[in-house]
Amino acid sequence: MRKAGRGILVCAALAAAAAGLRAQGAKPGRVWESRKSAWELLGPGQKDEVFKFADGYKSYLRVSRSAQTSTAEIERLAKAAGFSEFTDPSQVKPGARLIVDTHDRAVVLVVVGSDPIVSGSRLVGTHHDSPHIDLKARPIYTANGYTLFKTIYYGGIKKYQWANRPLALIGRIDTVDGKRVDVSIGLKDGDPVFVIPDNAPHSDNNEIRNRKSEEVFGGEELDPVAGSIPGNGSSVTAEVLAALTSKYGIREEDFVSSELQLVPAADPADVGLDRGLVGSFGQDDRLSSYCAARAVMDLKGTPKHTAMAYLSNFEEVGSTNNTGARSQFMTSTYARLVGAERGKAYSDLDLRQALRNAEVVSADTNDGINPIFPQTSEPSGAARLGYGAVIKKYGAGFDANSEYIAKIRGLLEKNKIAWQTQTPKVDGYSGGTIGGFLSMEEMEVIDMGVPLLSMHAPFEMSSKVDVWSFYRFMTVFLAS
Question: CA-CA distance, 303 to 55, in Å (whole number)?
Answer without folding.
Answer: 27
